[in-house]
Amino acid sequence: xxxxxxxxxxxxxxxxxxxxxxxxxxxxxxxxxxxxxxxxxxxxxxxxxxxxxxxxxxxxxxxxxxxxxxxxxxxxxxxxxxxxxxxxxxxxxxxxxxxxxxxxxxxxxxxxxxxxxx
Amino acid sequence: xxxxxxxxxxxxxxxxxxxxxxxxxxxxxxxxxxxxxxxxxxxxxxxxxxxxxxxxxxxxxxxxxxxxxxxxxxxxxxxxxxxxxxxxxxxxxxxxxxxxxxxxxxxxxxxxxxxxxxxxxxxxxxxxxxxxxxxxxxxxxxxxxxxxxxxxxxxxxxxxxxxxxxxxxxxxxxxxxxxxxxxxxxxxxxxxxxxxxxxxxxxxxxxxxxxxxxxxxxxxxxxxxxxxxxxxxxxxxxxxxxxxxxxxxxxxxxxxxxxxxxxxxxxxxxxxxxxxxxxxxxxxxxxxxxxxxxxxxxxxxxxxxxxxxxxxxxxxxxxxxxxxxxxxxxxxxxxxxxxxxxxxxxxxxxxxxxxxxxxxxxxxxxxxxxxxxxxxxxxxxxxxxxxxxxxxxxxxxxxx
Lengths: 118, 400
Hints:
The complex is a heterodimer of chains A (118) and B (400).
Chain A: E1 2-11, H1 19-39, E2 42-47, E3 55-60, E4 63-68, E5 76-86, H2 89-103, E6 107-111
Antiparallel strand pairs in A: 1-5, 1-6, 2-5, 3-4
Helix pairs in contact in A: 1-2
Chain B: H1 3-25, H2 28-45, H3 54-73, H4 77-85, H5 95-109, H6 116-127, H7 132-139, H8 143-159, H9 172-191, H10 201-217, H11 222-235, H12 238-241, H13 261-277, H14 282-293, H15 301-314, H16 318-332, H17 334-341, H18 351-362, H19 366-379, H20 383-394
Helix pairs in contact in B: 1-2, 1-3, 1-5, 2-3, 3-4, 5-6, 6-8, 6-9, 7-8, 9-10, 9-11, 10-11, 11-13, 11-14, 13-14, 14-15, 15-16, 16-17, 17-18, 18-19, 19-20
């Protein structure tokens, strides 16, 4: 089995959806998670608070410094992610499609290291 | 057996052998390595007595060498597993598994998770058996670039676990479309190359060969048949497309006696098969358009326009709309055709201003035509097409 990260690329510059739309979207993503669990490939899921609450800790000369804000100042920020396990990329991409449609944001599908190609 | 024969066998069997070995070993890179080993052995052994079935001989030899090597090197668990895989019974002579191996390889090389240039390079290398240097020459890019593309693509196939499988029924339409696009683009690059001379015959022939194989492997897919028909009917006109001094000859001015009648007959037969099936798609419709062009002494433009209307309904892209306008001009005149392309947005595409220029010239709007030709001449990267456009511009009558 291989593990894949399905990362939600959330565009923080878009206006926040209306409450009803938000609830619908949450119901859709919860449904995808439930489907993953039923299929036995769910490992982890989490939604993240916006990048305004992010702090970066950097190493240097044995000490660290802290800065306010995300590591990269881009419009798209990590909005949340799933970790799944499945046989191959085609299965992971099929979940990726479901996730993208459910949350309305692009999904980056990325394999975890160190699994065999069998 | 002479070296020439071995080259022929290599071109014909390389892809098939790598496809089968990839299934057995679970890794494209290893499969290629052992197939090349086996061909190196063949150079020595076949001098006295070539085997009756060279492909099967290569697969068996490659497989045996892989077992030997992996046994010796199986210090790591992974290598051991690969060696174990080789003890599974295999029947490389049977048609079914070999057919499936080839399809697996086609769908893997054209996987939508790979970049389009990587798909093309992998397809030409692994299915066509072209050397990296040949691919680089065909695309006029440095060898290192092609090499890197292939290495990176194979690494992604392995690391992301792109599966070696024929897509299921639900995914098949999308995945097949990706395969057809790759073959179409290979042909197109050969037929109207983006740089340098007009035609690169080797790419055209390779695309036709691969399309033929795909159509044979998937005889129930009308779009696969449609693509093959389209390529054959386009390829058939190639001898007439370039004049004695290497200049471009447009369809209306081509010497039809120089067209390849055999390819046209084959293409027409395939188009008739598609029509009987009646599940039209973009490639079948383009093939049908080309069938009309190659039927009889002159093109029946009313029929071409009807087919373009259907194609535009299927594929509402600006390129199709532009090509349809050429048929509109023939049926309804240059005025309506010009109106049909006025709103099109195709930045950087030289055929839009080139078509506009032709239509404006026919309407006698010479000054505008000249400006449009200038725009097209600046945009084209193909030297033959540039010469052709310059000649058309020079032929414009001066303003009154």
